[in-house]
Amino acid sequence: MKNIIKIFSFFLVITTIVSCTEKEDVGYNAQEERGWVQFMDNSPSMLGAFQGAIGTLDMDVNLQVPTTSSDLTINYSLESVSGLNPNTVFSNNGNFIAPAGRTSYAGPANSTGLEYSYLGNISLDLGELSGATITEPMVFDVVLTGTSSPTITAGLAGETFKVAQRVVINPSISQFVGSYSVFENFTGGGNAPFGLNNFFGESYQIDLALDATDTTASKAVITNSAGFDWYFIDGVEVTFGLDGSLFFDDGNSTAGYPVVALFRIFEFETSSYDYGTGVLSAQGPLDTFGPYQFTLTPM
């Protein structure tokens, strides 16, 4: 009787081990073609460019699938939010092919020899903007909509994986080329409402020209008009931000702030440019002298 019990117990242990091994193999199968696609978690909240920029605007697509035995078609759409409809500008056909076996899956090493470091890519050709009439920012979303496999979805139900990437295409900054009058003053404190020109008895005028060497089409250069005293250091580089802000580089500050009226570095808190009026402006404290602003108005 004891021998029968021992044999039965041994058989039960062997059966349990085999069963557990089989379950692990099923749940850990590198050949399983099931998962989702998404944009990278660490991708910027907004991508963009200015009309006139050279190259492409690229978006990486993460294929969270252990493997694929055949080519996988990944579908996406360009969905307009405001401004010109991107589907009238870009020739993208709304899909790309991930070759068989090419995924981004970060699973364990196995004997299949398949590459797990692949990222898909959606690319917008910025050269296609050259013939478009863009008078205001063109804002749209690139949205992953599905794949050619019913078991590989765009995102995953119940999860918040990123399946939409916001894109903004700004009009050319060429319309900002020209001469500007400079209005500046303190907006508070003991120096208000005067400006630096009131103290020094000067008036200011500057010229703005495109930076011909800039491939991003977002930079311009300030020069001081003949016959006028300096407000900015001559040759200041101005970068137009996609979010409507301005950054200055005159070699005196690494933080994007200019020296104004050959006086102090103006570490402004806000700045802006306006396509409708052509006005550029900045506001913030001028060192310890009080809150200050400048406005550049086309002449």
Overall structural domain count? 2
- The helicity comes to 10-25%
SSE order, as H and E? HEEEEEEEEEEHEEEEEEEEE
Main sheet specs:
8 strands, antiparallel
User: SS-based structural class?
Assistant: mainly beta
Q: How many H/I helical runs?
A: 2
CATH topology of the largest domain: Immunoglobulin-like
CATH architecture descriptor of the largest domain: Sandwich
Unreliable segments of 5+ consecutive residues: 1-31
> In CATH, what is the class of the largest domain?
Mainly Beta
The residue-averaged pLDDT reads 86
Q: Distance between termini?
A: 108 Å
Number of strands: 19
Kindly report the spatial arrangement of strands forming the biggest sheet: 14-13-12-11-10-19-18-17
Full CATH superfamily name of the largest domain: CalX-beta domain
Strand content: 35-45%
Shape: elongated
Rg from alpha-carbon coordinates: 30 Å
Structure description:
- It is a single chain.
- Helix content is 10%, strand content 37%.
- It is mainly beta and 299 residues long.
- The chain folds into two domains: 28-171, Immunoglobulin-like (Sandwich), CATH 2.60.40.2030; 174-298, Lipocalin, CATH 2.40.128.
- Strand 11 and strand 12 form a beta hairpin.
- The radius of gyration is 30 Å and the shape is elongated.
